[in-house]
Amino acid sequence: MTAVGRFSTRPLYLQVKDMLVQRIVAGTWQAGAAIPNEIELSRELGISVGTVRKALDEMENERLISRRQGRGTFVIDQTSDECAIRFNNIRDPDGIRIAGEIESCEVVPATASVAEAEALELRKGEAVFRLHSVRTHKDLPYMVEDATIPQSRFPGLTQDSEISPSIVVLAHSYGVLLARAREKISVAPAEGELAEKLKAPKGTPLLNLETVVYAIDGRPIEWRIASCYLRDNYYMTDID
Predict the structure, then answer these.
(1) How far is CA 113 from CA 121, 128, 203, in A?
(2) What's the predicted TM-score (pTM) here?
(3) Sign (positive/negative) of CA torsion 141, 112, 211, 218?
(4) pLDDT, tens digit, 9 for 90 and up, residues 208-230
(5) What single string gives the DSSP state of each residue in 2-40?
(6) How many angstroms separate the CA atoms of 203 and 192, rounded?
(7) Rg (CA), the chain
(8) 8 A C-beta contact, residue 231 and residue 237
């Protein structure tokens, strides 16, 4: 199999995964398209079915493909409702994920601070965009977000007529595939301007979420800090 590095120290199944992911990035396999089955891919690539299966397992775990019993394997549409809110763990009393409506969004070019550079694995002073947004649910503000993304991955962002603060939407627009996120949770009292934006009584406990979202290449693509006034809502995530 000439496309896989013969002398690479990277496990073979991960090399295969990288090759298959590149077909999605390049548009060879469009969203919703069926991809060849494990046997066809193993013959094409000259490797075992087990290696192909392991590569596809990784892609399924990263929500790039979906296997449907008796029907085949399909490329997931990254802009689907399910994927668009995949990193949102706030739920309403009925257990439905809340994406919310964007009340306001500001985008400012800046240079990375020490904290931003550390979180995004950038050099201090490297060009970034800072996004500040307020989300509402049922006409009430419930989340204030401050996100930082590298300008190198989103060139010309401020020239766009409409800018979404959703990293899923931004990534799709710039051909970036997302893999996973890491989220840290804490609690702090509502104070000052933050309390005003969330319409929360001073001292009300707010849920603070610090999230790093990673692209398929393993590099951090967004660092986001959100303050949430839950009211009747709650935070929930699945633990495997």
Answers:
(1) 11, 9, 29
(2) 0.78
(3) positive
(4) 999 999 998 889 999 999 999 99
(5) TTS-TT--S-HHHHHHHHHHHHHHTTSS-TT-EE--HHH
(6) 10
(7) 20
(8) no
